[in-house]
Amino acid sequence: MIRVDNLHKHFGGFHAVDGASLSVREGTITGLIGPNGAGKTTLFNVIAGVLKPTSGRVTMAGEDITGLAPHDLFAKGLLRTFQIAHEFSSMSCRENLMMVPGGQSGEQLWNTWFGRKRIAEEERALRAKADEVLEFLTIEHLADQRAGEISGGQKKLLELGRTMMVNARIVFLDEVGAGVNRTLLNTIADAILELNRERNYTFVVIEHDMDFIGRICDPVICMAEGKVLAEGSLEEIKANEHVIEAYLGTGLKNRDMVGA
Description:
alpha/beta; 10 helices; Rossmann fold; four-stranded antiparallel β-sheet; six-stranded mixed β-sheet; 260 residues; 10 strands; hydrolase; ABC_transporter-like_CS; globular; ATP binding
């Protein structure tokens, strides 16, 4: 579904992404791991249109999407979340979800005068959809609570919920487990697995928690210094000498990368 060919992103003399090439197959949950500074988030930002690449190519289902703006990629079904949740803090959780779909009738001044019935019908449908998403994520009790008042883990669930308000084809999740307690992390994992199995979502997940990666991701891709080091199952990755050296600076194969 996604193919990255010889991608580079330079910031002056610093090569954050340095010739990375990888593929993401449709219907998979692909894990992206690597030490801090490996270029994982920068790669996400380039694929998702947040940053323009210095060189290289990104295709989605065979279509060249290199350098397209985030809103154009959103319309094609490519979505991403961020390590720090981006919620509308003064709005309720339900309202945060209702804001997601584009092209709503209420966005046009003409319709606020002459299309009120259509606006009301759309809002009822969006409200029903948002409530369905909140129930799916087991946070329906937060529907009317301001998004700025909920916990960090609940905000991550809400961000995942935003992807369910549109016809997402592939979702890039950036450290979805950061700062999340184990109970909520399990809830997030359950939601990702169900969206993948029942709704055919394709995911790419940056995460440092190897237990989380091991539970939901196959294959796993490891990056270091802006390059792709290895791809395979988590067990294959953990046994790879180059990967071990990138994490630990040593050739010891019996060390555990959990939490790296």
